[in-house]
């Protein structure tokens, strides 16, 4: 390798590490995978969900998680408390009593278009796949910044294990590659879950709202929230009544840290120049350093 | 003039106790000799600290082999970060900020007045990164993968954590270079001392740049926790707040550590240095009070700017006021008063209050004002084991610091041959 190529490689490596690729992950992926056509996702129609918890069972079966008991009597007790997904449950159903009656809400990873967890990951263990799946990989170091950065509190860490993993719904990435439906969608008896491209399910959601304006609130949760998610929700009541946060905004989460990241290359260039400048400027006997040095020390000795 | 020169020569002959290391065998013998403890071993400090350290090591082994779950830590899905990140790493790094601030003052601004404390400060900073930032190994769940951001089977260049990881690593190297002349003097390596000494300015400039970025980067880690941090603390300027506060956090640590070192290692410090030291403390107190006032003003401004003023009259608001007034504004004026009246006790007291305030501030971001809406029963509290391990790490750092100060020219003057080198 000659010096020129060596410098080129070092230069591009440093530039890459310091300044390059500061775009948000969603955009990066779109650029890296021009073949990617559309993110896939699930439309969840909470007016159709009957709270049978079969999706919980189906999910646990295909993902090799401990199987939940979904007999009617267990469901009655389980649904009394509001639950969160956990390191052994990628999907859960919560029950809410509202003016419009009992509403069941299945919750799992929202598969954001531009996920905070992906932008947070220092080793790209968390990735947004080209078809929209947000997946986790074993090169993870377990720093848990993804958990801090997820507005929906989805990634879960296996605290009880000596060799822990981050556990979360991956929209059944492996099954998708085999051409199969996600475990939860496949077993849903009431078609409360609809799998398709984000464009398709968004259109379907809008169609349902337009066809039954009295039945639904005019809002698809996930259409704009945090820059859009691949999981979309329909509801009969305002979303804050069924456990959704309305204060998350529409800014994609990675953009909150880009401001800082954009400043990095500037500081990297400007700071050393400024400091070297000050260092030279404060030198006694400017420009004639060698001549002046002994004198400088004599001066000090006299003090 | 001539008399002075004669004296210098005499000193060279008298004090040059640098080892003569000619071969690797010499080196090993020297290290073996130096590893032996010196003086009385059964001091009260040793008797209290040793059992805590050993207990901590047992828990560290347990944590690495059995995981982070209860009873090792009280971390939960709601609180992924606890004491080990919030205090050991994030607060520890803020306290280590004194090294880059003093390097800026001494090597860039050439304020020679502060030169006598630069080595102790840089050593402290370096050890803080080794031990406190090093504590991240304990905190990350999949610690066997720790080298991944470095060797990069994947580089997460969009991640603030990736930047912080790299900067920690590079900054440790820069600080090692900054301190290395003292190691060379200890080993008696004259030629290497000359080379390392010439690298100082480069390392300093690189180190200050890295510090600016990762001190603020630690704040930027929390940017995507926007929906979880109380609005009085969350602002898009968290990185700047972290950077500014690292200035007076670091200098307060310098004052605190220095006042202890000057008692413990009093026999190493000559009368002349002691007189200078008072002047140094007063200067540091002035810098602290100015930086803290700027920080206080910024805090206030941001709360108004983010329309969070309405939250001040709530429970979290009182907590915020306690932090911002009780632990920023009050010590700010204490520093000022202490500097005006040359009241060293007041300055040292202000430094301790400031440090408590920094701990509160960093812990607010990691778990107190984080998920503030969670009921008190589900809040995170550090487990006894987390506290013992933290104490154990701090004590190990203190032991290492003491070992190095007792052997290397940190507080004492460098050997005459090294001084002569600096002057040419």
List the helices and strands and how they pair.
The complex is a heterodimer of chains A (303) and B (424).
Chain A: H1 3-18, H2 25-32, E1 40-45, H3 54-63, H4 72-78, E2 92-98, E3 101-107, H5 116-120, E4 126-128, E5 134-136, H6 145-149, E6 156-157, E7 166-167, H7 173-177, H8 183-187, E8 193-197, H9 198-211, E9 231-234, H10 255-281, H11 289-302
Parallel strand pairs in A: 1-9
Antiparallel strand pairs in A: 1-8, 2-3, 4-5, 6-7
Chain B: H1 2-15, H2 24-35, H3 44-66, H4 83-95, H5 98-108, H6 118-131, H7 136-139, H8 148-151, H9 160-187, H10 190-198, H11 200-220, H12 238-264, H13 271-305, H14 315-341, H15 344-368, H16 384-407, H17 416-423
Helix pairs in contact in B: 3-16, 4-6, 4-15, 5-6, 5-11, 5-12, 6-9, 6-16, 9-10, 9-11, 10-17, 11-12, 12-13, 12-15, 13-14, 14-15
Describe the overall structure.
The complex is a heterodimer of chains A (303) and B (424). By secondary structure, chain A is of the alpha+beta class. Chain A folds into two domains: 238 residues, Alpha-Beta Plaits (2-Layer Sandwich), CATH 3.30.70.20; 46 residues, no CATH class. In chain A, 38% of the residues lie in helices and 13% in strands. In chain A, a hairpin with a 5-residue loop joins strand 4 and strand 5. The longest helix of chain A has 27 residues. Chain A starts with a helix and ends with a helix. Chain B has a single domain, classed as Formate dehydrogenase/DMSO reductase fold. In chain B, 71% of the residues lie in helices and 0% in strands. Chain B has 17 helices and no strands. Chain B is globular and about 65 Å long. Chain B starts with a helix and ends with a helix. The relative contact order of chain B is 0.15. Chains A and B meet through helix 5, helix 6, strand 6, helix 10 and helix 11 of A and helix 5, helix 9 and helix 11 of B.
Oligomer: heterodimer
CATH class annotation of chain B: Mainly Alpha
What is the count of helical runs of chain B? 17
CA radius of gyration of chain A: 27 Å
**Strands of chain B, total number:** 0
Whole-angstrom Rg of chain B: 23 Å
How many domain regions of chain B? 1
Q: Return the average pLDDT of chain B rounded to an integer.
A: 90
Strand content of chain B: under 5%
Please provide the count of β strands of chain A.
Answer: 9
End-to-end distance of chain B: 18 Å
Shape of chain A: elongated
* H-E order of chain A: HHEHHEEHEEHEEHHEHEHH
List unreliable stretches of 5+ residues of chain B.
1-15
């Amino acid at each position: 390798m000659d010096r020129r190529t060596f410098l080129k490689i070092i230069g591009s490596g440093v530039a890459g590490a310091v300044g390059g690729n500061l775009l948000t992950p969603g955009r990066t992926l779109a650029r890296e995978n021009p073949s990617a056509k559309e993110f896939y996702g699930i439309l969840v129609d909470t007016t159709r969900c009957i709270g049978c918890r079969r999706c919980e069972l189906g999910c646990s079966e295909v993902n090799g998680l401990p199987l939940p008991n979904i007999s009617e009597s267990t469901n009655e007790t389980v649904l009394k408390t509001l639950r969160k997904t956990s390191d052994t449950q990628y999907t859960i159903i919560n029950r809410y009593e509202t003016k419009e009656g009992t509403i069941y809400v299945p919750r799992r990873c929202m598969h954001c278009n531009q996920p905070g967890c992906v932008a947070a990951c220092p080793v790209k263990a968390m990735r947004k796949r080209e078809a929209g799946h947000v997946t986790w990989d074993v090169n993870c170091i377990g720093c848990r910044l993804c958990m801090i950065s997820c507005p929906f509190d989805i990634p879960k860490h296996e605290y009880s294990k000596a060799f822990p993993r981050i556990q979360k719904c991956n929209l059944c990435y492996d099954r998708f590659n085999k051409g199969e439906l996600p475990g939860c969608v496949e077993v849903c008896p009431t078609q409360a879950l609809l799998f398709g491209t984000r464009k398709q399910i968004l259109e379907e959601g809008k169609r349902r709202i337009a066809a039954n304006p009295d039945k639904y609130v005019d809002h698809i949760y996930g259409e704009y929230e945090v820059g859009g998610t691949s999981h979309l929700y329909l509801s009969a009541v305002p979303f804050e009544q069924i456990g959704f946060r309305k204060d998350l905004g529409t800014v994609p989460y990675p953009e909150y840290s880009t401001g800082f990241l954009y400043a990095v290359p500037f500081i990297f260039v400007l700071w050393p120049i400024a400091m070297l400048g000050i260092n030279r400027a404060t030198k006694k006997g400017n420009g004639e350093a060698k001549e002046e040095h002994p004198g400088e020390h004599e001066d000090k000795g006299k003090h | 003039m001539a008399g002075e020169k004669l004296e210098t020569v005499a000193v060279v002959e008298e004090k040059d106790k640098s080892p003569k290391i000619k071969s690797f065998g010499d080196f090993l013998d020297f290290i073996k000799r130096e590893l032996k403890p010196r003086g009385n071993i059964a001091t009260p400090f040793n008797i209290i600290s040793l059992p805590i350290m050993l207990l901590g090591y047992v828990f560290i082994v347990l944590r690495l082999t059995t995981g982070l779950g209860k009873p090792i830590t009280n971390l939960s899905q709601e609180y992924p970060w606890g004491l080990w990140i919030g205090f050991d790493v994030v607060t520890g790094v803020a306290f280590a900020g004194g090294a880059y601030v003093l390097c800026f003052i001494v090597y860039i601004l050439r304020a020679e007045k502060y030169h006598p404390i630069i080595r102790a400060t840089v050593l402290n900073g370096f050890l803080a990164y080794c031990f406190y930032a090093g504590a991240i190994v304990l905190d990350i769940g999949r610690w066997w993968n720790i080298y991944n951001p470095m060797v990069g089977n994947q580089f997460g260049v969009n991640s603030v954590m990736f930047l912080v990881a790299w900067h920690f690593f590079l900054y440790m190297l820069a600080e090692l270079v900054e301190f290395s002349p003292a190691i060379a003097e200890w080993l008696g390596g004259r030629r290497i001392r000359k080379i390392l000494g010439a690298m100082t300015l480069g390392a300093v400039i690189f180190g200050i740049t890295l510090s600016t970025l990762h001190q603020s980067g630690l704040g930027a880690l929390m940017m995507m926790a926007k929906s979880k941090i109380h609005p009085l603390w969350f602002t898009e300027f968290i990185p700047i707040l972290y950077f500014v506060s690292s200035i007076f956090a670091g200098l307060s640590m310098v004052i605190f550590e220095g006042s202890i070192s000057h008692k413990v290692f009093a026999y190493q410090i000559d009368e002349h240095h002691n007189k200078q030291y008072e002047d140094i403390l007063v200067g540091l107190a002035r810098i602290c009070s100015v930086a803290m006032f700027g920080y206080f003003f910024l805090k206030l401004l941001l709360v108004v700017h983010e329309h969070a003023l309405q939250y001040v009259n709530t429970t979290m608001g009182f907590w915020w006021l306690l932090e911002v007034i009780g632990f920023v504004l009050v010590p700010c004026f204490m520093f000022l008063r202490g500097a005006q009246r040359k009241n060293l006790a007041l300055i040292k007291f202000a430094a301790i209050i400031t440090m408590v305030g920094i701990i509160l501030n960093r812990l607010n971001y990691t778990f107190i004002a984080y998920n503030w809406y969670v009921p008190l029963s589900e809040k995170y509290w550090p487990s006894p084991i987390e506290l013992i391990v933290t104490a154990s790490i701090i004590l190990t750092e203190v032991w290492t610091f003491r070992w190095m100060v007792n052997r290397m020219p940190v507080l004492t003057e460098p050997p005459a041959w090294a001084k002569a080198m600096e002057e040419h």
